[in-house]
Design a protein that fits this description.
The chain has 386 residues and is an alpha/beta fold. The chain has twelve helices and 17 strands. The protein has helices at residues 3-10, 43-46, 55-67, 78-91, 102-121, 140-145, 170-179, 201-213, 284-296, 299-316, 340-349, 371-385, and strands at residues 22-26, 29-32, 37-40, 95-99, 127-131, 162-165, 182-187, 190-191, 197-198, 218-221, 245-248, 259-263, 322-328, 331-336, 352-353, 355-357, 360-363. The strands form four sheets. The protein has a seven-stranded mixed β-sheet, sandwiched between helices. The structure holds pyridoxal-5'-phosphate (PLP). Pyridoxal-5'-phosphate (PLP) binds next to helix 5.
């Protein structure tokens, strides 16, 4: 039996997989069982931000792996403490809770906002405002937060206490805050799964001002946009705001599962002993990998992310068969004349792996993808789109 047919028989059919079995990777190049090579423009959905087989990352992870693999949160370990310190020092946030995924980071963010508001404004203040077309995860609560109805179907009842307002519509946000008891405002600065759509700077600043004025915790979901993806350590840094809560995951671990909920001054002491927890959260091996990732995302490195971004935008904008290019940094959405699925399949045949997001082709290459491979991949995408 082939691996494909074993997988199809025994793995839950939640994913529409491409007919490719990957076996190894080096840098931004992946190899399948037939030895065919692909330039990776998806990095495992924005996870392997330093590509595959990165020496520095592997060293950090294997050193820790050999020393101590897991402890539970009953004890202190160095990687967990140092990663939390690094994240706080680089963002101005005050406390970090570690989980294992984006959805878990958002679950924590929602719990923090609800507890803060319940203590300050009463237990009937629990509603979280999120945006139409947002994506916040697959657990029943983060699904409720997700403003896309097709994800909700047949999973009712979801966690109550979520309302969705139109993105970039300041009056709608003002109205909901004026008429309902609101415990939190949660948004992605660039809607990823929603089609790589950046919010306007005006809207993000207005949301932050409303949140501050009404003493409502502002949650920025940086699961996809975070960790250098948009050209700054976190995307909110380009919008001139200071969130109260930041959730992140995907690229944080560089390939290992880790999520983090960062809490600012307003909410830093909301969670006390017993309020939240995770058996694996803060795992020393994952934290050792993440610490390397965050330390390497310095100004010089982020400047290169920006340069690569400008190259991709300048190449694709106005190219035949391409209607528009959206996004920030190396989080890029392409509206193609041909259906996105068709473009992605054709790119795969030509040795380039791309993603989709709604009706867009989505690119999330490794942040350190060599220029030569980026040029090759962009040339293939342009050719396929014609
Ligand atoms: C991917 C994603 C999530 C969910 O992350 P998981 O690790 O799959 O749970 C949440 N929010 C955003 C913005 C995402 O892109």
């Amino acid at each position: 039996m082939s691996i494909t047919s074993i997988d199809q028989e025994y793995v839950a059919r939640t994913y529409g997989r491409f007919p490719v079995e990957l076996v190894s990777g080096q840098g931004s190049v992946l190899k399948d069982t037939a030895g065919k090579e692909y330039i990776d423009m998806g990095s495992g959905i924005g996870v392997t931000c330093f590509g595959f087989g990165d020496d520095v990352w592997i060293q950090a992870v294997t050193d820790q792996l050999k020393m101590l693999q897991h402890t539970s949160n009953l004890y202190y370990t160095e990687p967990c403490a140092l990663l939390a310190k690094e994240l706080c020092q680089r963002t101005g946030m005050k406390k970090v809770f570690f989980g294992n995924s984006g959805a878990e980071a958002n679950e924590c963010a929602i719990k923090v906002a609800r507890k803060y508001s319940a203590e300050k404004k009463g237990e009937d203040c629990y509603t979280i405002v999120t945006l139409v077309n947002s994506f916040h995860g697959r657990t029943l609560t983060t699904l409720a937060a997700t403003g896309q109805e097709h994800f909700h179907k047949l999973f009712q009842p979801l966690t109550p206490g979520f309302v969705h307002v139109e993105a970039n519509h300041i009056e709608q946000l003002q109205e909901v805050v004026a008429t309902e008891k609101i415990a939190g405002i949660m948004l992605e600065c660039v809607q990823g799964e929603g089609g790589v759509l950046p919010l306007t700077r005006e809207y993000v600043k207005a949301a932050a001002a409303i949140a501050k004025e009404k003493d409502i915790p502002l949650i920025i979901d940086e699961v996809q946009t975070g960790n250098g993806r948009t050209g700054t350590l976190y995307a909110y840094m380009q919008f001139g705001i200071e969130p109260d809560i930041v959730s992140t995951a995907k690229g944080l671990g560089g390939g290992l599962p880790i999520g983090a909920c960062l809490m600012g001054q307003k909410v830093e002491n909301v969670l006390g002993a017993g309020d939240h927890g995770s058996t694996y959260g803060g795992n020393p091996v994952c934290c050792a990998g993440a610490l390397q990732v965050i330390r390497r995302l310095d100004e010089e490195f982020l400047r290169q992310v920006d340069e690569k971004s400008q190259y991709v935008f300048s190449q694709l904008q106005g190219s035949e068969g391409i209607e528009s290019v959206t996004g920030m940094g190396l989080m890029i959405g392409i509206k193609t004349v041909k259906p996105a699925k068709e473009v992605v399949t054709a790119c795969m045949e030509q040795g380039v792996l791309c993603l989709t997001a709604k009706d867009k082709v989505r690119l999330l290459p490794a942040l350190n993808i060599p220029m030569e491979q980026l040029e090759k991949a962009v040339a293939v995408i342009k050719k396929v789109c014609k």
